[in-house]
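User: I'm writing a short methods note and want a consistent example. For Matrix metalloproteinase-14 (Membrane-inserted), I'll paste the sequence; you return only the structure tokens, no commentary, since I'll be parsing the reply automatically.
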Amino acid sequence: MRRLFSTVLLRIFFTKLLYLRRYGYLDDHMPGTRNLASAENRKYALQFFQNFNKIPITGVYDDATANLFGKERCGCPDVMPQKNEAAFSKKKNPPTPVQFNLGTKWNKNQVTWRLNSFSRKISNNNVRVETRRAFDLWSKNANLQFTELQSGDADIDIDFGRREHGDGAGNAFDGPGRVLAHAFFPPFGDTHFDEDEGWVVNRTGVDYFTVAAHEFGHALGLGHSEIREALMAPFYTGYNPNFELNSDDIAGIQALYGAPRNQPRPRPTTPRTTMPPVVVTEPPPPRPPPTNRPTFCDIPYNAAVRDFNGDLLVFMGRAYMLRINPNRGLVARMSQRTVFQRSPIRPDAATEVMSGSRIVMMKGRLLYHFSRSGRRISRKWISGGGATMPEQARAALSFSSNDISVFGASQVWKLNPNTGRVISGSHRYIGNEFPGVPNRIDAAVIRDDTTILFFKGRSRMHVFDRRQNRVVRTVDKGNELMDSTCNV
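Assistant:
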């Protein structure tokens, strides 16, 4: 009996590891030890999964985590693999149905599709009608047109299959529940549905239209979204008779293919054409901090970012950082370049891109991408013309993987982290978009699903509630984030 119990526990252990590895949370680019199964890496991967999916970050396999592990979902990873897929070909060394590099897309706007097989659960006509409707959802919101082929080679081949269906044992379907479908990114596009699911049309069950629309998003080049309301979120949310694409889905597909031809391009807005800024009267400063507390409690922050496990990383001074855990306070002080190799000294701004598993830094008009292990992946110039960066960047926030909000002295604008291009027409005044937040902030970071922290000066931190859309508290940052260290 004891041996059987040990075998069951071992199987559960490896099932968790396989899940985290399959969906991109546990890979060869972990920031910890090279042993992927180590306790350190398992905890980090669980924290990353919890952070991405907006559940409490505990680092343990709790009830909320177990519930998501067992939920129906797409078979593609949530986190972008950090490897070059360009060497793959469809006939030699074919890829698995995973996300490819950021920005992968068809090099055309006319895309063809073909139904190679059908489901026994839905009539052939219903499959065809719902497939067209799913493609129409994307063409309505982007410069895309889709054509069905009855024969010949199509860009997107659509099939229903069971268990191991030609993609290799590692990508086999798993029977009813859990993985519903998966798709390949361009230039492959193949989309496969698990025939063991209880497929239905326009009613409660596994709605074919909803799943197909999600998978076609992958076949067009979109990854998974950390926005729970988005179609491209990894978990199946059920049939919705009034379904429309989320703004994050639309931002992603238009970043790849542009807006529909009949939709006018937004005009660039500058301070002369936006509403006058709200004048923010700053509250009196908090009480002067004690003189005997550590010096780093009162050094202004250059930039701040939320690590994938939920910790805060703050850049300060010339080249050092603090790691702050929301529950335990200060965890470590360290050199910036021991964490982020070849990173810019005193970055102007930094933020995280969740589904890309990347940290993005800005310095002047340069954009740097780093892997979660701190390896520098790329450096590119920010494009869009001088008027699109009217002020030097001072902070950055990433609410989704499709755009970054960049804060200057008085304005905030959006930047596509994948292309490095400023989004036309996105310029606004900070006081109008974030009521109560003063101009000339030093850094900002998203603490959780409802709270943003804005830092200014030696000790001031403005706590912004996203639901109330206002600053709810102004506090001493050292006391709030590192109480036991700074509140002496």
